[in-house]
Design a protein that fits this description.
2 domains; binds zinc ion; seven-stranded mixed sheet; disordered N terminus; alpha+beta; Herpes Virus-1; Apoptosis, Tumor Necrosis Factor Receptor Associated Protein 2, Chain A; 10 helices
Length: 318
């Protein structure tokens, strides 16, 4: 099920009919030629008008090489060019394959803010370093951490928390200790399953508790692990423990939560969490063969200083 919520406006989502009906290009075609006088003077902060000149009239993102133009000189970014099926969205003539080299040179010479500046990133870069930075920018939006569905929502942490609560209806808990019971009837019928995510709010941060069933080699197992809603550097400031047990036995896992930048699948495949063999989980459930009733107790705490904690992340498949 696709969610209707969009935390950030995704410019790439422009539909073709919207492209062809756009009116923003009129602004572009009225650009004054006097802008060019600023380009050769070694001006470190070009006037906003140059940025306007480089604004794609369709998606309004900054244009970078390759920049395309039609026979009448209307320019277009390469992303939008693919979408308009070879028709200039401004004059509707055939677009052809003409590059606008002059504008490309201008684009390369400019320093521009990171595209996540509206999310708080203050960095400014020449184009190519900007692209590299944006891929790893710590302000870039996070993907929805919900594992049970193909969810395309992205945004900052607060926005994702609201989305998880309102759209995925996840359990939200306050506090740094928890005691959770995972139930499944006929657990032997299931080889792969994902339980409802639980979100914990403590130390002013959010954590996601995952519980999944999968096949580890030939052995059916359950796995519980925690992910931190924030970046990996900050995740290292926290530790957590998980405990399952019963009938005089127990298993304890202690670890560093993984950032939600790492997909739940990646964390699962690196076995970075509490793994319980199915027979043991059923034993902990009270010995019933046909029902899983596994109580997972846990605690999250803040490390006083943990500069190296979690710096080395297990990855059994690399
Ligand atoms: Zn565009
Ligand atoms: Zn045109
Ligand atoms: Zn940035
Ligand atoms: Zn989602």
């Amino acid at each position: 099920m696709e969610s209707s919520i969009e935390c950030i406006s995704i410019q790439d989502g422009v539909r073709e009919d919207e492209i062809l009906n756009t009116h923003s290009f009129s602004q572009f075609s009225s650009s004054k030629p006097s802008h060019n006088s600023n380009l050769n003077g070694g001006v470190s902060a070009p006037p906003a008008s140059v940025h306007e000149l480089l604004e794609c009239p369709v998606c309004t993102n900054s244009m970078y090489p390759p920049i395309h133009q039609c026979h009448n000189g209307h320019t277009l970014c390469s992303t939008c060019k693919v979408r308009v099926h070879n028709r200039c969205p401004t004059c509707r003539q055939e677009l052809g394959d003409i590059r606008c080299l002059a504008l490309e040179k201008v684009a390369e010479s400019l320093e521009l803010p990171c595209k996540h500046n509206s999310l708080g990133c203050p960095e400014i870069f020449p184009y190519y370093s900007k692209l590299k930075h944006e891929a790893i920018c710590s302000f870039r939006p996070y993907n929805c951490p919900y594992a049970g569905s193909e969810c395309s929502v992205a945004g900052d942490i607060q926005c994702l928390v609201t989305h998880l609560r309102d759209d995925h209806k996840v359990d939200m808990h306050s506090g740094c200790t928890f005691n959770h019971r995972y139930v499944k009837s006929n657990p032997r019928d299931v080889e792969n399953a994902t339980w409802m995510l639980t979100v914990f709010h403590c130390f002013g941060r959010y954590f996601c508790l995952h519980f999944e069933a999968f096949q580890l080699g030939t052995a059916p197992v359950y796995m519980a692990f925690l992910r931190f809603m924030g970046d990996e550097m900050e995740a290292r400031n926290f530790s957590y423990s998980l405990e399952v047990g019963g009938n005089g036995r127990k298993l304890i896992w202690e670890g560093t939560p993984r950032s939600i930048r790492d997909g739940h699948r990646k964390v699962r495949d690196s076995h970075d969490g509490l793994i319980i063999q199915r027979n043991m989980a059923l034993f902990f459930s009270g010995g019933a063969k046909d029902e899983l009733k596994l109580r997972v107790m846990g605690r999250i705490w803040k490390e006083p200083q943990n500069p190296d904690g979690g710096a080395c992340i297990p990855n059994l498949f690399s």
